Every structure is written in C-alpha cells, then in structure tokens.
C-alpha cells in the first residue's frame, strides 16, 4: 500500500517529468483510438457489405458434367441425351427445396415458381420482332431451368418480398397500386404494357386457365401494375421482355399444381447461407441429399469479395498505421524511461540503502508509470473519440446516403414509397434487402470509440507501458546502491 | 566488554576492489568487535578504507574475505535488505534523504520499508524529530528547504525510526559547523548511553574521536590501533 502512496506522491511532486510522459502517452493513445475507430468503422462497413451481399447460393446446371455426355461423332443422339438429362435434372419440387434448405448452413431461403398459363380474358402481347423470347427470363440475369413455357403467359410466383429481386434491383417498378404483402392471397401484378393492351386497371380481376387442362381456371385480382426498366436486350423489341409475365405468389401456383399434377411448374430456389465459409460443405450436403450430378451450386462470393476489397485496404492501412504508432511509441517511451531512471539513480540508491527490496523499487517505478499512462490513456481516448466521430462519419458518409437512397428507391419499386401515397407498413419499413447496406451514421462518441475500443486501447497502452519499462527494471536490478551514493558524494 | 553485549564481530576481514590486482587490498585482516551501549569511532586518513569498512558492516558490499557476524549470524547468510531495514540505521555525510518528500515523510518511509508493526507512525516520527532537536514546524518542509544540520537530524531520526540495534554513521558531522557537530554527537552519544545502542562513527575528526568510547584506527599500512 505504501508503495502506491509513494508512487502517487512522486507523481504529484515531479510534475514536469510526468507531464512529458503523459503528453506522449496522450498522443499515442489519441492516434491509437482514431486508428481503432477507423478499424471499427471499416469492420462495420465490411460487415454491412457482407450482409448487403448475403452469400446467396442458387442451383444451376453443371455444364462441365453435361458436356461430358456429348459425343461429337454422334451429334443427334447426344443432343437428345443431353435434353433428357437436362429435363430430368430440372425436376426440382418444393419438397426438394425444403429438404435442401433444412440445413445448418442455410440461414433462410426463398424461391420462385413459374408456369405457362393461358387466359380467357387477356390478349397476349405479340412480338413482331425476331426477338420473341417470352421465356421466363428476368432482367436480373437469373434464368429459370425452363426457359420455354407452354401457354401464352408466364405466371411467376414469389415466396416472399425478399425473393422479388427484379423489384429490389430496380428492374421492375410499380407504377400503379402496390405489391401485396400477403403471399397467400390471389392477387397479381401485371406489366403496364399488357394492362394498356387489355385496358386493365388496379382492382380488376383477370382469369387464367391451366395450359394443360382448360377446365381449370383461376381468378386473380390485379393489385398493381409494374413497368420494366428499358434494357439493351430488347432495344428493338415492340414490348418489354416481361410483357406477358404475370406476377403472383408461390402459394397460388402450388394450388394450381395440386389441382393438376401434370402441370409443368419450374422452381428456382435461392439459399441464403450462414457465412462465406460454408459453401463447399453445403454443396457436399446437397450431393448427399441427392442433388443431380448435372446440377451444382453457384454463389455470389466474387461479388462479396469485390465489394469489400477497397474498405479492406483502408482497414489494412489503419492496422499498419497502428503498428507503426505502437512501435514508435514504445521506443520513445523506453528512451524516456531510461533517461528517467538515470535521473532517479540517487533515489534508487537511497531506497535500496534503507533496505527496500529491488522488486519493491521496480514496483513503485512501474506503478508511477502505469498511473500516468492510465490517466493519459483515458484522456487520449476521450480526445481520440471526439476526433473519431467526424473521421468515421466521413468514411461511412457515402454508404449511408447510398443506403438511404436505395431503400427509398426499393420502397417505390414495390409501390410503398411515401411519394406514392402508400406509406410502408412497419414490417416493410424494417425489412432489409439483399444488395442494400444497413449502415447507420455514427452520431455519438460511444459509437465511434465504444467499450471494446476503450478496452483494446487500455490493453495496448498498458502493454507498451510495461514493455517500455523493461529497460528501467533491468537498470534497477543492475544498480549498486553503494556505487550510486559514492557517485553522488 | 561482556560477551553478551557484543552485537557485531568482524573477523579476519580483507577486501579489495573487483578490478584491483591480486594483493592490492584496501582492508587486510581486520578483527573488530562492537558492543551495545558504546560509541565507536573508526578513524583514518582519506583512502584508508573507513567508508569501505562501514559498507561491509552495513551489508552494502558483500564480496569480502573473512567473516562479519551480526548477533552471531554471518551477514552473507541473512537477507541484507531486511538487515538494513530493521537491524541497522545508517547516517551518511551527505544525508541521503529523498528530496521530493518532507522531513516527516522521509522518516515514515523508513518505518514502512522495515515492515515492522509500528503504531501511530506520524506521532512516532514527530516524536523522533523532536528528540533530535527539530521542531514541529519543520515536519512538513521538503528536506531541501532545511539546513545541513537540520537535514542530518532528519537522517538520524530516520535511522532511529524502526528502533535498530546499531547506528552506523559515515562522517555525520563532516558538513556541519562546530556547534552543530557537538549537538549531533550529543544525540549519538545519548543513543548509546540511554538507548543502549551500538553507535559506530566513521570520521577523521579529532573532536568525534575524543568523545568515542573506543577508537579503531585504520592506517594506510592496514594496521589498526585501539584506544
């Protein structure tokens, strides 16, 4: 106890020396806390990017395996074989998907169903251009297994809002009405061109007919009308690609399938994996569960890595800066400590002469250093925290504004924006969409330099203080009290 | 001198510096005994090894030949830090007080270092200060604000703070005027006579030697004489 009391007295009565040490520790602590805050911001950015680009896995054709069945010397038969294999591999059912999704590697999943249908009261939008690909091909680039469907129209069902990538990515935008949030009702949304051709308005009812069995007909209420963004693919077409696509929910299509077992429904699942490292394990699990050898998993890992590379560089720079600061800080503190110990040789001599053990002398000197370092670290962390807020916000600024714009824009795509007069429901307002960052602005010091940063800072500070005092401790061990006092005399 | 009063024995002690030649001894075959209740003066010319002898007795130097025994125990075999902090009190010519502490704090520090159970340390320290001629007003002064004589009194009070059995004083009056020298000598003599302590004073002052009970003289030829 008296050691601590002595240390405090010594600090208070040798202000000049301790102020110098304190100032250096404050500067180091300030630099370290800013660096740690940058590192934290980078981490939250990387995290938000990783959640923005959730690891999505879709089941797609394994073309390498498919092509192995192709015999160039027997082209005709090979083609037929491949077609058979292709169709066999495509027979994924809802039960298959649920079975695949029942995995520890899967966070969530959604799927789309599509089926060819006819209509008794709708006129199909006919193309005059050579581009007559009315297949179920979304502008987002995802292609269903069946790109040729029977019937005049493609009825496409989504299992949830999250599955509606075309709207999230902005390729489809609601221009009237809204997307129903009830995925078990009998609502639909149709293309604006189809609506114009058939004079359909929101609230109207349309009748669709099973393409395989005319006796099965269904009614759908139009809850919204969407428009497809113009793209290069159909620049010379009369209508947009999605003109004959009617959008509803998977529940509706499942009911159709229940009424007619022969209905040719294709399903495209998307699995959201728990993290980046489980892709291979999930692939192996699917094979074990019986996924055809001609199908394989495709992920968006490259997209995730590309998105985080820039911010990873900032993070690496911050860590390098941190290491350099710590090395310089440790060296400077060590030198100051050595000078201090030389100046305090007399004190060491007196303490040793009156019988204080070397270990106690070391303890007193280290206590002094730790007290000064601790106070300075807290002060430095405070100053660093104040500086960190604008620095962190600068880093996050673009992401925050992009995220807000994207979220607003998605709401409008679904017909839920404030401007549409249909304010989003609470559920919808809280929804996070794949492809949109969910990053928040740093509006307080706590957020920039939180408890974790503070603890890291204290840990780092105390470690460099102890490292820098090693030289002092060695000197104390080597000093002979008699020699010191003789030199003094 | 009664055997039971002997507290310290120096037997065949020789010492040479670690970098000195093989036969170049500073001290050669010294044999002294020190008893309680006596004042000893160790005199000799500069370079005769007076302070070196005091360093050996105080356990600050331990690479000697021969034997030094405190209460029958060989110094080499006991914890010298404990020995210095409890059994002996050292008073230096240059006082060796800690300048950032007050007079009182210097005395209390020694009590704390000794780890002995001492009640009411502040009162005890103040009492000691008064016993060596210091006033209450001086207790809270940093030692550098005290005169040489006052600092030496603080050093004596510090050396007495844990009630040691031996007081070793190295030229305690070397920096003081005649009048103060006499005051300090009176205090040291009083410690021997009234408190039954063994007081060993290294000096080349005739005045100090005259007041000692026993004088050990170190000569350059390494011979010693006894009063």
Structural features, described:
The complex is a heterodimer of chains A (489) and B (227). Chain A is of the alpha+beta class and 489 residues long. Chain A has 2 domains: 2-53 and 306-488, no CATH class; 56-301, no CATH class. Helices cover 53% and strands 15% of the residues of chain A. Chain A is built from 17 helices and 10 strands. Chain A has helices at 2-13, 15-52, 63-67, 75-89, 94-101, 165-168, 192-198, 250-259, 279-288, 301-343, 345-353, 358-413, 426-429, 445-448, 451-468, 470-478, 481-488; strands spanning 56-61, 106-119, 153-158, 172-177, 187-191, 205-210, 217-228, 245-249, 266-273, 295-299. In chain A, strands 2-3-8-5-7-6 form a 6-stranded mixed beta barrel. In chain A, strand 6 (205-210) and strand 7 (217-228) form a beta hairpin. In chain A, helix 10 (301-343) packs across helix 15 (451-468) and helix 12 (358-413) packs antiparallel against helix 15. The longest helix of chain A is centred in the C-terminal third of the chain and has 56 residues, at 358-413. The radius of gyration of chain A is 34 Å and the shape is elongated. Residues 129-148 and 437-447 of chain A have low confidence and may be disordered. Chain B is an alpha/beta fold and 227 residues long. Chain B has a single domain, classed as P-loop containing nucleotide triphosphate hydrolases (Rossmann fold, 3-Layer(aba) Sandwich), CATH 3.40.50. Chain B contains 7 helices and 10 strands. Chain B has helices spanning 50-57, 80-87, 103-114, 121-131, 148-160, 178-195, 206-211; strands spanning 6-15, 27-35, 39-44, 65-70, 73-74, 88-91, 166-170, 198-203, 214-218, 224-226. In chain B, the strands form 2 sheets. Chain B has a 6-stranded mixed sheet, sandwiched between helices. In chain B, strands 2-1-4-5 form a 4-stranded antiparallel sheet, covered by helices on one side. In chain B, strand 4 and strand 5 (73-74) form a beta hairpin. In chain B, helix 2 (80-87) packs across helix 3 and helix 3 (103-114) packs parallel to helix 5 (148-160). The longest helix of chain B has 18 residues, at 178-195. The two termini of chain B are 14 Å apart. The A-B interface holds A 2, 6, 9-10, 13-14, 347, 349-357, 360, 480-482, 485, 488-489 and B 55, 58, 60-61, 81-86, 90, 92-94, 96-98, 100-101, 105, 109-110, 112-114, 158.
């Amino acid at each position: 106890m008296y050691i601590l009391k002595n240390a405090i007295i010594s600090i208070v009565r040798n202000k000049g020396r301790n102020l110098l040490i304190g100032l250096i520790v404050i500067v180091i602590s300030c630099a370290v806390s800013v660096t740690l805050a940058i590192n934290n911001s980078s981490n939250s950015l990387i995290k938000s990017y990783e959640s923005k680009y959730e690891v999505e896995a879709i089941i797609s054709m394994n073309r390498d395996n498919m092509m192995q069945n192709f015999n160039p010397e027997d082209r005709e038969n090979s083609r037929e074989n491949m077609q058979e294999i292709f169709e066999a591999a495509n027979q994924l059912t809802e039960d298959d998907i649920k079975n695949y999704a029942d995995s520890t590697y899967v966070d969530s999943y959604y799927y789309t169903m599509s089926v060819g249908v006819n209509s008794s009261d709708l006129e199909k939008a006919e193309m005059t251009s050579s581009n007559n690909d009315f297949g179920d091909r979304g502008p987002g680039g995802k292609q269903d297994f069946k790109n040729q469907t029977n019937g005049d129209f493609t009825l496409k069902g989504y299992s949830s809002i999250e599955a509606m990538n075309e709207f999230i990515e902005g390729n489809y935008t609601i221009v009237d009405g809204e997307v129903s949030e009830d995925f078990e009702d009998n609502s639909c949304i149709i293309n604006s061109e189809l609506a114009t051709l058939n004079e359909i308005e929101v609230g109207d009812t349309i009748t669709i007919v099973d393409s395989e069995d005319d006796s099965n007909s269904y009614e759908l209420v139009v809850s919204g009308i969407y428009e497809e963004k113009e793209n290069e693919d159909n620049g010379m077409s009369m209508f947009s690609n999605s003109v004959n696509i009617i959008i509803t929910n998977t529940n509706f299509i499942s009911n159709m399938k229940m009424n007619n077992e022969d209905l040719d429904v294709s399903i495209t699942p998307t699995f959201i994996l728990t993290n980046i490292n489980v892709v291979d394990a999930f692939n192996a699990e699917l094979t074990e569960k019986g996924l055809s050898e001609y199908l394989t998993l495709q992920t968006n890992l490259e997209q995730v890595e590309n998105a985080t590379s820039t911010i990873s560089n900032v993070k690496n720079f911050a860590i390098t800066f941190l290491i350099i600061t710590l090395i310089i800080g440790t060296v400077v503190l060590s030198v100051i400590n050595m000078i201090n110990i030389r100046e305090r040789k007399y004190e060491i001599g007196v303490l040793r002469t009156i019988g204080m053990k070397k270990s106690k002398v070391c303890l007193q000197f280290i206590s002094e250093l730790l007290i000064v370092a601790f106070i300075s670290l807290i002060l430095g962390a405070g100053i660093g925290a104040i500086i960190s807020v604008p620095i962190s916000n600068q880093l996050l600024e673009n992401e925050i504004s992009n995220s807000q714009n994207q979220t607003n824009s998605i709401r409008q795509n679904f017909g839920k924006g404030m401007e549409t007069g249909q304010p989003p429901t609470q559920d919808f307002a809280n929804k996070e969409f794949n492809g949109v960052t969910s990053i928040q602005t740093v509006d307080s010091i706590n957020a920039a330099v939180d408890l974790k940063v503070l603890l890291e800072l204290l840990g780092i500070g105390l470690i460099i203080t102890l490292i820098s005092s090693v030289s002092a401790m060695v000197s104390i061990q080597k000093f002979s009290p008699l020699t010191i006092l003789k030199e003094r005399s | 001198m009664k055997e039971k009063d002997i507290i310290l024995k120096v037997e065949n002690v020789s010492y040479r510096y670690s970098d000195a030649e093989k036969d170049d001894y500073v001290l050669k075959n010294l044999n002294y005994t020190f008893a309680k209740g006596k004042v000893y003066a160790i005199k000799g010319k500069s370079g005769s090894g007076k302070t070196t002898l005091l360093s050996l007795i105080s356990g600050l130097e331990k690479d000697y030949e021969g034997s030094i025994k405190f209460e029958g125990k060989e110094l080499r075999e006991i914890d010298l830090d404990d020995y210095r902090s409890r059994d002996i009190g050292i008073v230096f010519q240059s006082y060796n007080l800690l300048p950032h502490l007050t007079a009182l704090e210097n005395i209390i520090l020694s009590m704390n270092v000794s780890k002995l159970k001492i009640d009411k340390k502040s009162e005890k320290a103040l009492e000691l200060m008064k016993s060596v001629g210091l006033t209450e007003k001086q207790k809270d002064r940093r030692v550098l604000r005290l005169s040489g004589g006052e600092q030496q009194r603080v050093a004596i009070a510090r050396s007495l703070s844990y009630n040691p059995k031996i007081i070793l004083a190295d030229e305690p009056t070397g920096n003081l005027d005649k009048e103060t020298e006499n005051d300090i000598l009176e205090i040291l003599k009083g410690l021997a006579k009234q408190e039954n302590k063994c007081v060993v004073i290294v000096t080349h002052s005739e005045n100090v030697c005259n007041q000692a009970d026993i004088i050990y003289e170190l000569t350059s030829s390494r011979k010693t004489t006894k009063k």
